Amino acid sequence: MYKLIKNSGAARRGEFTTPHGTVQTPAFMNVATCGAIKGGLSALDLKDLKCQVQLCNTYHLHLRPGDENVKKLGGLHQFTRWDGPILTDSGGFQVFSLAKLRNITEEGVTFASHIDGHKIFMGPEESMRIQSHLASTIAMAFDECVENPAEYDYARSSCQRTVRWLYRCKAEMDRLNLQPDTINPRQMLWGINQGSTFEDLRIENMKQIRELDLDGYAIGGLAVGETAEEMYRIIEAVEPEMPKDKPRYLMGVGTPANILESVKRGVDIFDCVMPSRNARHGHAFTWDGCRNMMNAKYTLDEKPLDEHCDCPVCRNFTRAYIHHLFKSGEMLAMRLCVMHNIYFYNSLLEQIRSSLDQNCFEEFYSNNILKLGARI
């Protein structure tokens, strides 16, 4: 259940109650693709980094260790030891990312496994069954993500198929939640808005999927080739058609500046691999912009990664030490930088929430939007 607490323009301050805890929004979901944050972090680490929600990948967990094995082990919460909300994507993004290894039909998608090439079929029913086995808090509907720029006619037919798939997802989830051996019979289903960069398709699609009165709604198919300006334009077009009493999730986005811009346009929830992926390559996000810890100028720098940050890394280690770890190829370099970046992202959302609570979001936006997008 979503409760809207207050608005600042289109920006929303709310809270979302789930069977595994209440999420304060706007919020960032931390990406644990295979059940772990890349960079050597466990669910126990996430507790110290202000994390609220963990996101896991349906496709990858279906391949390894196998969703039926996860079910035998008690579901993702028992398996990973994360006791807060977990969202699982549907596998639909792999329809996009494995474009050279797929075949799409009305029934679903045939993949070639990226691991060993064996054939996998996934449709709406298969995706729902896999996610039910994983026992996540929130299951995403099975959809097709279209690469931008897309041809109008293909984007339209893809949207129509995604809506038909959504009805099948809902019917299968309703059935699964009634089964006696279902681990999480209160699993939620969120629908995904598609339509490439075409406003009319996006609006029509949103009107169609909101009729199902789902637990939440996502905007998918963005940050996949279009400019940031196009992304913001689509959010602005879709937002008025999104239910006011349901959480709004912008999938796979993005930079700190992207998040701040999207909150301003009415988005509640985000996920992105950027904080962990960039950290593993030595890029630390700070309140002054992004630092490349490979740079020689940090060799003797005794300041923390971010002088405005109180994360466990900034409280204990210097830029010089982290620079040395990266240059030496030490695994600890990645772990420390990932910890910092995840803490930074969650702190950013925490401060956005605080600014909304205190009726000063516009001031917070103005003071930080340029700095957050800077490279140091």
What does this 3D model show about the protein?
The chain has helices at 43-47, 58-63, 67-72, 76-80, 92-97, 124-134, 152-176, 199-210, 228-238, 256-264, 274-280, 312-316, 319-327, 331-357, 361-372, and strands at 2-8, 11-18, 21-25, 27-31, 53-56, 86-88, 102-104, 109-112, 119-122, 138-140, 188-193, 216-219, 248-250, 269-271, 283-286, 289-292. The radius of gyration is 20 Å and the shape is globular. Strands 4-5-6-10-11-12-13-14 form an 8-stranded parallel beta barrel, surrounded by 4 helices. It has 376 residues and is of the alpha/beta class. It folds into 2 domains: 2-272, Queuine tRNA-ribosyltransferase-like (TIM Barrel), CATH 3.20.20; 279-372, no CATH class. It is built from 15 helices and 16 strands.
Number of separate domains: 2
- Percent of residues in β-strands: 15-25%
Helix content range: 40-55%
Measure the end-to-end span.
41 Å
Side-by-side strand order of the widest sheet: 4-5-6-10-11-12-13-14
CATH level-two architecture of the largest domain: Alpha-Beta Barrel
The whole-number mean of residue pLDDT values reads 95
Number of helices: 15
Sheet with the most strands, sense and barrel status? 8 strands, parallel, barrel
Spatial extent as radius of gyration: 20 Å
The first-level CATH class name of the largest domain: Alpha Beta
What fold name goes in the CATH topology slot of the largest domain? Answer: TIM Barrel
Structural class: alpha/beta
Give me the count of strands. 16
Shape: globular
Low-confidence stretches: none
Relevant CATH superfamily of the largest domain = Queuine tRNA-ribosyltransferase-like
